[in-house]
Amino acid sequence: MLDLTYETPKPKVIAGAKHDWELVIGMEVHAQVSSQAKLFSGASTKFGAEPNANVAFVDAAMPGMLPVVNEYCIEQAVRTGLGLKAEINLKSAFDRKNYFYPDLPQGYQISQLYEPLVGEGEVLVEMGDGTARNVRIERIHVEQDAGKSIHDMDPNMSFVDLNRTGVALMEIVSRPDIRGPEEAAAYVVKLRQILQYLGTCDGNMQNGNLRADVNVSVCRPGAYEKYQETQDFSHLGTRCEIKNMNSMRFIQQAIDYEARRQIAILENGGSVDQETRLYDPDKGETRSMRSKEEAHDYRYFPDPDLLPLEIEQAWVDDIAANLPELPDQKKARFIKDFGLSDYDASVLTAETVSADYFEKVAEGRDGKMAANWVINELFGRLKKDDRDLRDCPVSPEQLGGVITLIQKGDISGKIAKDLFEIVYTEGGDPAEIVEARGMKQVTDTGAIEAAVDQVIADNPAQVEKAKANPKLAGWFVGQVMKATGGKANPKAVNEIVSAKLGL
Amino acid sequence: MSDLNKLKIAEARDALRKGDVTSVELTEACLSAIEGAGALNAVVHKTPEIALEQAKAADARIKSGDAPAMCGIPLGIKDLFCTKGVASQAASRILQGFKPEYESTVTTQLFDAGAVMLGKLNMDEFAMGSSNETSVYGNAVNPWRRGNDEAALTPGGSSGGSASAVAADLCLAATGTDTGGSIRQPAAFTGITGIKPTYGRCSRWGIVAFASSLDQAGPMTKDVRDAAIMLQAMCGHDPKDSTSADLAVPDFEAMLTGDIKGKTIGIPREYHMDGMPEEIEALWAEGRKMLQDAGAKIVDISLPHTKYALPAYYVIAPAEASSNLARYDGVRYGHRATLAQGDGITEMYEKTRAEGFGAEVQRRVMVGTYVLSAGFYDAYYNRARKVRTLIKKDFEDVFAQGVDAILTPATPSAAFGLGEMKDADPVQMYLNDVFTVTVNLAGLPGISVPAGLDRQGLPLGLQLIGRPWEEGDLLNTAYALEQAAGFVAKPAKWW
């Protein structure tokens, strides 16, 4: 594997009224585990079902019901841990986090506070300018999702939908290694990319199956380095947690707003209160949800309904042996094997579906040309139609066919674009289309010479002008191309025109 | 045959198999006994239609030659067990009107074996209590009285309805549950046998949870043989309960030989409590002698952390309960308070839970919430867990020294009068559990066997504590003790 080395990016600096400030950000990403059944009940996890259709007795917390852990959810979390190069704890345990809310039927969430399944790992977050931040993962624990409370359907009543209750979540907790709003968004993008590669989370933020709590604090330049040396948090500022962010754009906006809010407080001689805040995208501001004093006392304790979770190293090894190629590896391979630029490799490996598509197109063909066609022509065309690669009308084999025709010299780049449009709109085998519609490039110099002779013979005045001003040779080339329906090899036409005009 | 309701399980089983009696006859006898026993307030939901239907099915099954031991046996079921379509409300107002759509694993196993459900039995609310006085149905009454004194006595708790019903022959046997002594103490107070098996022997699925790490179901029967037969049908691995043990269940009844020669019985010195009635001490000494006479070797042992058991129990059990009972919030089922204009979700929780839970349950929820709260967790809950580990180790140590079973009194007194403890410090009530909670904390099997009467004519029980998963051995030792004690007294019928 090619080793990609990056510079560490500079932290974002915000100039306050009095001096400069830096941001320190840590994130807790809640990723819904891709699984058929919930974490502790056999109920389905299918999104979009009728309200309260996917609810087992356990999920509704009926008296005497007991949780039984879904092994597949644990496997998915282990796979995620391995994908983030994290330690897997062979012994972990479930704890109860107690609080009252109508969409939490048990009155507690089963989570893992004291002994999480996954320990320390890392995520390399590339910033696109040759820099990348290595964000350390503190832990990943497995827990139950809550249901949904719906307050806007009736003026006097609230409704509860328990379909999501008990769906498995992975809470991926980072260290405070993120240094700016863009890095924060890039971190979530990268994390989502890895999860999607692993198949452990769909990462659909609109459906809420990837959500982030963002911890933001500000400090003076130099303070963070002291924290890094000592791991002593007292060097950092007081943090506020912005809850439940489900869009990359809002994450950036919220962090930026929150940092400036904290800076204004500090520069005015105040102090930041540790609290939980919510971001209001309409107003573009964060507001207090609850203060530290109002913070819940969750009364965590080991869940007595569940035995400690013990897994075998051999099982973990087996999952590790079957991990798919991950984004960093794939990108490095694309750069090395196909000679792609860092940028092109990043674009193509953003999702497995695009990477797979590209690899099929590039197989046995020129990698760079394949990348150009996939990124510029195909993605461009899809974007124009607001379509996704998942419902692309052109198969990799078809696009590959177009490129093969170019590489063989059968068609010019210009004709290829026309051909691509035909394949895109009408379908069909590119080689057959070229044959049937006479789109093949003319490389027969005799035929080209004849066409050139004809144009020269028909335009004596132009010939005289061209002899005086060689730049006008281009006009003859254009006429020849026109006469041959664009199928003449442009290079050959150029040469022959120059020779015949004696330039 | 007359007085069919007075039969024991083994007797009824044999009579059913011989065709001397039908399950319908047995069931009718019990239903009629229940009808005449309103004063005991032991049966709180009667299910005669279900009972007769099950009895008919059992008779057909017996006729066809397919008759497990429990087939056709009429039972009472503690209200803590969820029984499908039948009120199951843990003797609490908060579960008023609750009829589950599912059947607990233990009752499913019993009914699959052909047992008959006569009705649901009284208990302390959410199994929290030692006198049955915390029940929303009002207390059950002990069929035993102090001589001619008409004062009503407690049947004990929390399985007080089960104890009262079995002792008064309203059923052949009953299910109970035991979190800190809730099978063994009422069994002792009513002169019957009750066994709490090893934690994990019986599935907890479908039993309303009190303290999940301590709760175990068990049978309450008229003698040790019946306990063996019924336990056999109740226990076994259940994949729906993660704490249920995947172990084979031996034939407990076949292990009742009465031969305990060469067994070592430990007598723990720490169970001699200050102020314990002389009669209890005397009974304990008698028990020691009986087992010795039966050929067992008696050794004095020490369980040094015993005195910390009760405080540890009264931290751990309420802690788990405070969390287990959070689901009773008025949102999905059971009682919901009527709300005033402007009341929100917090008021709904507060009013619902204030109305739905009785005083003792509220006390334990508050204690449990307190011991788990930030700043107190280590001082209370975590320390209690450490104590629990030490208590468990006490037992492991004596078992490692070759002790097969431990003999103790079951309770520090005979049944006390209803209302007698009304104004007492709640801790006085908790002292009832002093001999029994250690067994729950250590997850061990324990059995209470009636061994004599006190001067006032009230039954007293002895407790035997066994090695984990060795209920068969424990039952056999209990059987030997039962044979030697020859307890046959029955309460004089006054109800």
Structural class of chain A: alpha+beta
| Basic shape of chain A | elongated
Largest sheet of chain B: 11 strands, mixed
- Most extensive contact: A-B, 30 and 43 residues
Distance between the termini of chain A: 52 Å
Tally of strands of chain B: 11
Q: What is the residue-mean pLDDT of chain A, rounded to a whole number?
A: 93
The assembly state of the depicted protein chains is heterodimer
Structural class of chain B: alpha/beta
According to DSSP, the number of beta strands of chain A is: 16
Shape of chain B: globular
Mean pLDDT of chain B: 97
Give the end-to-end Cα distance of chain B, rounded to a whole number of Å.
23 Å
Instruction: Please give the order of strands in the largest beta sheet of chain B.
Output: 1-3-2-4-6-5-10-11-9-7-8
Q: Domains counted in the coordinates of chain A: how many?
A: 3
Number of helices of chain A: 16
Unreliable residue runs of chain B? none
Radius of gyration of chain B: 21 Å
Instruction: List segments of chain A where confidence is low: pLDDT < 50 over at least 5 consecutive residues.
Output: none
What fraction of the residues of chain B are assigned to beta strands by DSSP?
Answer: 5-15%
